[in-house]
Specification:
Elements lengths: L10 H20 L10 H15 L8 H5 L9 H15 L4 H40 L3 H6 L2 E5 L8 H10 L9 E5 L3 H22 L11 H18 L1
Parallel strand pairs: 1-2
Helix pairs in contact: 1-4, 1-5, 2-4, 4-5
Length: about 240
């Protein structure tokens, strides 16, 4: 059966993830201009626009409630430090490499707790949803055969939250497995096409090789490994 699982964007998750990305956004805005030269007016306008947009989020990114709820041990200073740093850059019209590095390292200390809070909130919500599906929608047989398709960006694949979660709960590898498929992008139809191909490969691989996982690797993988040992043996000896 197909069960659409569109993701979980809870208020706490969105707040913490946004806070975690502010430092990266500031760094990307300034990294190419962290020199002794003044920042060009057109780029200062971009920085100012980001600073203005960030300024409208003061209430949404206030973490005092998160502290009261035990989500954070203390209010984070990411927002305040970022705003102050951008104000300094805009007032001077420039920033040095050392200033940007000091700011980034200083705020880095604050990032860990908010990312932990975001992960915990997302995982709790995900687990609650999955447990409901497992207990109320799927039979034990369906659960044993369930396939999960995770959509996300290329750079986030390694260690991605949902990949880790479903690998653990399905007791299956996060890579090259027919039950857990990662698709780079947000094109849902293409993602389902990838899932269909993966499932077909598993059936065909079992029929041809007696191994459901064989076609989840390059069909030339085994031959390549064996021949590379022979091909490079002389080079290794010479080295």
């Amino acid at each position: 059966m197909n069960q659409n699982f569109p993701g979980l964007n809870t208020p706490i998750y969105n707040t913490m993830k946004t806070l975690g990305h502010i430092t990266l956004a500031v760094y990307c805005l300034l990294s190419d201009w962290a020199t002794e030269r003044p920042i060009p007016e057109n780029h200062l306008a971009r920085i100012s626009s980001y600073r203005t947009a960030l300024g409208t989020l003061a209430d949404e990114l206030d973490t005092r409630t998160a502290v009261e709820q035990g989500i954070l041990h203390k209010p984070t200073q990411i927002y305040a430090k970022s705003m102050a740093f951008l104000d300094t850059v805009l007032a001077r019209g420039g920033v040095s490499h050392d200033e940007l590095r000091v700011f980034s390292r200083d705020v880095c200390i604050e990032i860990g707790p908010v990312l932990m809070a975001a992960a915990q909130d997302q995982l709790r919500a995900c687990h609650e949803r999955v447990q409901h599906i497992r207990q109320n929608i799927l039979s034990p047989e369906q659960w044993r055969e369930i396939c999960v398709l995770v959509l996300g960006p290329y750079m986030a694949r390694e260690g991605e939250l949902f990949l880790q979660y479903f690998a653990r709960i399905l007791d299956t590898p996060a890579q090259a497995d027919r039950r857990l498929v990662y698709f780079e992008g947000d094109d849902l139809q293409s993602a389902f096409d990838r899932l269909d191909t993966t499932m077909l490969d598993a059936v065909a691989s079992d029929a041809i090789f007696g191994d459901r996982e064989r076609l989840h690797r390059d069909v030339l993988a085994d031959a390549t490994t064996r021949f590379l040992d022979e091909l490079l043996r002389g080079n290794s000896t010479a080295a």
